[in-house]
Specification:
By secondary structure, this protein is of the alpha/beta class. It contains 7 helices and 14 strands.
């Protein structure tokens, strides 16, 4: 199975603390993306890095060997940023069948990722106190996705997408409209897959999730990494 890892972006929220690409931000001395890469299960046999933005050369240089722990890396350049579905879609011409996709600056429970890749289609989720800041998920009694809403103004659920998922090629061919903020939204794609195409998307909850978007989140991630003994 191929893994599409989103490595583009500017990392503006961490800019005052760290000048490099956020994906390489050290969490207790280890680049944050390495936590994700080290948690990938054996089903993953190839890495596809979506790169672009001001830190592209730094990321390419960091992975200049063209592989990570034996997994070959393909770099694909993203010139325009129009939301996560657009970013993942940059790899549509090189992906075959079911694929794993993820943002590159979050730390996930590897047990949950192992469960994720065993499903035909699945989303990695977590419960949070501030769901209005995320893509919110509504599930049925069997933990299948019913619908998803990007940053809802009114409470829908406290279950949110963490940034990792397993999809197939229909994710790339499902067309949605640009949102009010000028981006294609991942929840819109999932909702169409479920409600219009009859797809089953399993929602798997991660035991822990550490996004690293600002200084407080970095400190929380470092505390969790220490607690878990991940370094």
């Amino acid at each position: 199975m191929q893994a599409i890892i989103l490595m583009a972006g500017k990392g503006t929220r961490m800019a005052k603390y760290y000048e490099g690409p956020k994906q390489l931000l050290p969490v207790l001395g280890k680049p944050v993306v390495h936590y994700l890469l080290d948690s990938l299960p054996p089903e993953i046999t190839e890495l596809i890095f979506i790169v672009g933005g001001p830190h592209e050369d730094t990321i390419r240089s960091h992975f200049a060997s063209g592989e990570y722990v034996g997994l070959p890396i393909t770099f694909i350049r993203q010139d325009e940023q129009l939301g996560l579905p657009h970013a993942f879609g940059m790899a549509k011409d090189v992906v075959k069948g079911k694929w794993f996709g993820s943002v590159a600056d979050d730390i996930f429970d590897p047990v949950a990722i192992s469960k994720l890749v065993k499903e035909d289609m699945a989303i990695l989720s977590s419960r949070v106190p501030n769901p209005e800041q995320f893509g919110v998920l509504v599930t049925d009694e069997e933990d299948n996705l019913v619908r998803a809403v990007e940053k809802p103004k009114e409470f829908v659920s406290d279950l949110v997408w963490t940034g990792a998922m397993v999809m197939d090629e229909t994710f790339f061919t499902t067309k949605t409209e640009l949102s009010a903020r000028g981006e294609y939204e991942t929840p819109d794609v999932w909702t169409k897959l479920v409600q219009e195409q009859g797809k089953k998307i399993k929602v798997i909850t991660s035991a822990y999730w550490c996004p690293v978007n600002d200084k407080p989140q970095l400190e929380a991630a470092e505390a969790k990494v220490k607690e878990l003994g991940l370094v």
